[in-house]
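Usage example:
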Amino acid sequence: MNVGNWLALGGAAIVALAAVAALRRRITATASGRRFFRHPTAVPGLFVLAFFVTIAIAAPVVAPYPPYFQIDITNPDLPPSTQFLLGTDPYSRDVWSRLVYGARVSLGIGAVAMLVAATIGTAVGAVAGYFRRWVDTALMRLVDVGLAMPRIFVLLMAVALWEHIALWVLVLLIGLTGWFGTSRLVRAEVLSLRERDFVAAARAAGAGSGRVIFRHVLPNAAGPIIVSAALGIGNMMLLEAGLSFLGLGVPPPAPSWGNMIADGWHKMTVAWWASTFPGLAISLVVMAFNALGDALRDALDPRRAGEEGGEGGGAA
Amino acid sequence: MATWLVRRLAASIAIVFAVVTITFFVIHAAPGSPFLPAESQHLTPETLRRLSTEFGLDRSLPEQYLLFLRNVVRGNLGQSFALRRPVADALADAIPNTFTLALAALIIDFALGLALGIYQAVRAGRVGDVVSGNGALLVNSMPVFWLGLVLLLVFGQWLRWAPVGGLSNPVLCPRLDSPACGLDFLWHLTLPALTLGLVGAASTARYQRAAMLEVIRQDFVRTARAKGLRERRVLLVHALRNALLPVITLFGLAFPFLFTGAVLVETVFAWPGMGRLAVNAIFQRDYPVVTGAALLTSAMVVLGNLIADVLYAVADPRIRVRSETA
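Running the assembly step on the lines above writes:
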């Protein structure tokens, strides 16, 4: 770590703080925004995420070494010091630098996989809940099967059997096996929304099914979807870490946090830092997502909206 | 209740059937074969053909599938390619280990989770609640295998309080045939069970706290207090009994977590259970073992949900009535 890196790190912290403050100013204008920020874990959670996103974007300045750079292969496993903030790993790569670049990989995988899962889950849930009858039955039986599948087995099988799987395929697979819970949630929401007067009004005005679903029903179901997405990203990241740990996730030497734990695992007794810090990073980020999910749930739950006069429910 | 149970049971079997079918076709659709690359294993074409015939791999896929189904119904899960023994035997060796681990973890999960949840609800908003609540959130966010590694490092390597892996001491206790070896087994069980149990307890506590808070606000709790009952009795008898209902759902949810968690935890602690068996089988393309393990795991998950539903119906009369009219 040289002076530039330290300055960049401090800068990242300030940027993250500023981002949280700006967000706070923007959204405390609404009642649910105030409820969100009143939650004790909302600000710390947002800060942790903003911080990791900032260092992920600014990786080249925050990290003193490139992620694959092997400093001195004859002399690996150096303990944390001022030069190597979090030590070096068994391949003599700087753990801090890999952690910083790894934020790109791990956060990116979590976000994209969640996007895939939330999209499919919302679509399936909306179709099942809106059209009911045999469509609903068929889709929900499919969801039952999906939820009973040992997910990690299925992913392991897919990855192990297809060999040399591309990263985007892995992300897609994680997303494709993660939408079952969301779809149940959305279906329940849509089932109750479709009976409301404003939906009947929209239908009476001649809106087709697609328009009613996208313009009238789904916007009112956004709350639970957002909450489950926030909680889901954490799960996606944990899953990626688990797969990478078994050697079947992100192909090495890419610095995903799960890969880093796997790299340091077998030399844990000599160099505890190589596996410990990436695990800590995962725990922190997943915790931040969980904390945000909790705060969002409190803020967006219409039943709690009454606690601060008004909002919630209503027309599209 | 009886017709509901029969219907639920039929649905459960259908789900397991679907999972097994999907697993079967996913594996067989994948490129590669268990006997490849042939060059590296010095297999002649004749040997390869003989092996394929022996394991039925030369037949068409639908044929293999029907054969597989017929065998499963008869309780025959086929022959493992890599282990050279019946899949049912290999699974039978591994299952007790996974069950013991899961059971121990489940006990830690609920004992610790319930106690912590009740404590947090009673002290809601105070220091103890906030500190333990955030602690639980953190543990709940940890990758379970990483927590295992850290516990292993601290208690196994640095403090040397616990062994670093395996079922039992391979020299002194190769078989569990004496009380001392039983203790040795328990000692080896501690860290893996604690790893799974702690992560589970963290989420159980979060649910239990919410459920308890919900109940404490209700009128009958105020009535109980007004009657002059001691606070302890109000909380632990009147409130807790009602706050336990949501926990039954958690019990159903714990099964998938325990079995997927076991895959990773067993790997970390070299615990010879089903998860490790399955992971090794996946690496070796040992189709029959993988399908067998998938069959068992999904059956466990479905069974867990079924048990939770039944318990729920037994515990909550409102649900029973609803399911009978439906």
